[in-house]
Design goal:
It contains seven helices and ten strands. The chain is of the alpha+beta class.
């Protein structure tokens, strides 16, 4: 028998507000950026593996992530991007050769999203950083762990390419270095970071979207046993509204 919802439960579903999750987005954290922040806890972060190619394919995470080795390499339940990485990796003799460079384009990249309370906007912010950058930031969070509730920090990013550095430095003289507004927000900051803000902040791509992204990246998907999606003849099909159905 088909499973269905009835009675009071059906009414609950009928009356529920549409929910699309939160509207949180990553805050801009390009080189030259500085935030004055309060650190609300030592574990306000999530770890993820993203795919993408700069200026070609926007970053995304797989809706069904592969299992990774300790080094972060895909080992089981490979996504199509993992398969593209593996195709070139298996043909590469060293990471600097042509296949090694191609493999690097499709390899999942370990990233961290970290949450803070911004003293200028008076709102929580989330930044996207690499593992090394996250370690640099978290090192100072742990260093001042016992006094986080009393402190303000300067979060900044400087440099470019391999010379890019991030830092989280304590504001030594908040009465002098912070504006009155920032001092007020420091005193009013919440006790904890809302971890629900991490929900939905990452763009998840299913396999069909990942294949489209591979094609956009210039990868020949036939090399991993896939065929390009066929376009329907005659243009786009007409949308059918539920109200048009005869049942």
């Amino acid at each position: 028998m088909t499973k269905f919802v009835s009675g009071a439960d059906a009414l609950d579903v009928l009356n529920q507000e549409e929910s699309g999750g939160n509207n949180a987005e990553f805050s801009s954290f390009k080189s030259g950026t500085t935030y004055y922040v309060k650190v609300l806890g030592t574990a306000d972060l999530i770890q993820f593996f993203s795919y993408g190619i700069y200026n070609r394919v926007n970053s995304f995470v797989a809706d069904k992530p592969s299992k990774k080795s300790a080094a972060g390499n895909p080992v089981e339940d490979l996504t199509v991007w993992d398969k593209a990485w593996k195709y070139h990796k298996d043909l590469s003799e060293e990471w600097t050769d042509e296949h090694g460079q191609e493999a690097a384009k499709y390899r999942p990249k370990q990233r961290f999203a970290m949450g803070f309370f911004d003293l200028t906007s008076g709102e929580p912010i989330i930044i996207d950083v690499s593992k090394n950058q996250a370690q640099a930031i978290h090192g100072n969070i742990k260093k001042y762990e016992k006094r986080l509730d009393q402190m303000a920090f300067e979060l900044s990013k400087q440099g470019s390419g391999r010379d890019t550095t991030v830092s989280l430095s304590p504001v030594m003289f908040p009465e002098e270095d912070l504006t009155e507004h920032q001092q007020k927000k420091l005193a009013e900051a919440p006790e904890e970071f809302d971890m629900k803000l991490f929900d939905g902040i990452l763009f998840e791509a299913d396999e069909a979207q990942q294949i489209e992204n591979l094609i956009a990246a210039g990868f020949d998907i036939s090399l991993i046993g896939l065929e390009a999606p066929k376009k329907e003849a005659g243009g786009e099909s007409a949308d059918i509204d539920d109200e048009d159905l005869p049942f």
